[in-house]
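[[Per-residue structure]]
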Amino acid sequence: MAMLEVKDINVYYGLIHALRDVSFEVNEGEIVALIGANGAGKTTTLHTITGLLPSKSGTVTFEGKDITKIPGHAIVRLGMSHVPEGRRVFAGLTVRENLRMGAYTRPGSEIEASLAEVYKRFPRLEERKNQAAGTLSGGEQQMLAMGRALMAKPRILLLDEPSMGLSPLFVSEVFKIIQEVSAAGTTVLLVEQNAKKALSIADRAYVLETGQVIKSGKAADLLNDDSIKKAYLGE
């Protein structure tokens, strides 16, 4: 049984049919990528999974439980964390305060140990723990958003465009961290416009186009697919 199963999801923005019978699955321990152009429906898909957008029809199942109608804050308690597009850190709070916000579902007695784990993975955040989040660079804010999500001890981490707006150096660092998080036992669903980078670390991938899944397969196979190369890899 898949850890996360999305089945025949349809989502509308008013009269606009944004997602059309979208179906895919993520198995425990995998990194699965959703790739596609701007406006393909990638962010809408994540928002639907995590209860931020209602679906007109279809189901989302997480670890055997139907979560289609469950609100976002309750989904976090089930073991799913969402790192949103654009990072969305609390700019006026310190790095440490932002991280603690990510642990609101956890017992207070566990928070210091979790902070220590996050600081170990992101040493730069420990260096800047008393600094306002809004004063961090884009790459540091991305690390903070990921660290905040990890504070909830998720079973699955949903990442929306983690490389957006970052320098090549930070992009490489962020993707290395995604691989480390996966190796440590957290399943990952990765939405990413940088298709080449996403396919280079994913196990499997799905291609979204105008709200529909048009292709899927092993990431390595899609990296070598001529139509994917032409459309998404600039080759």
